[in-house]
Amino acid sequence: MDTFNQKIEELTQIIKESDTYKNYIKAMEEIKAHPDKWEMANAFRKRNFDFQNGTSDNKEYMEETMMQQHSLMEKDEYCSKFLNAELDFCRLFQNLNFELIRLLDIDLGFKP
Description:
By secondary structure, the chain is mainly alpha-helical. Helix content is 80%, strand content 0%.
């Protein structure tokens, strides 16, 4: 195994040992124990993905709908816990990417 792949495996292990990852996995296991909640959260995640990536035709309607659905998700214990844990996990990767960009001196034309 080359050094790069070895370091990727080490980083993966560090991530798996983090509280952020453990919270995400625990929240996912808890919501999956309630298939209706899991389905509801996944439908929201799909709509949010479409909204965030501009694949929706009616932005104003989608924004209002997403705000209403987010409010419903926040009221549900399992959905709220899972979606917040997932957001924290995504932010971990976002921070990792920003640090890689900074350390590799990649010129984005702006500061992340």
